[in-house]
Write a structure and sequence with these properties.
Length: 79
């Protein structure tokens, strides 16, 4: 059985990092300076949090799918 979780990420312009959160996974909040690093952190954090929160039994769930939904807004100043 594969579980599927949605993760939302937004660009924090002030801090210059991507911030990821999820209402599907209790306690999931992390950040990284680019999306590849964020994705790698999520691959580590998601299973750890799911097991810690008793949302999955790692022995019976060999696959965890997640969808990373990103939002970024920029301001362009025209001379």
């Amino acid at each position: 059985m594969t579980n599927h979780y949605k993760i939302e990420a937004f660009w924090d312009q002030e801090a210059q990092v991507w911030v990821a959160e999820s209402s599907d996974i209790l306690g999931l909040v992390t950040e990284a300076d680019n999306l590849d690093r964020l994705t790698n952190k999520l691959k580590q954090i998601i299973p750890e949090l799911l097991v810690a929160n008793h949302q999955i039994d790692i022995e019976n769930n060999k696959n965890i799918a997640f969808e990373l939904i990103t939002h970024r807004q920029e301001l362009i100043q025209v001379a």
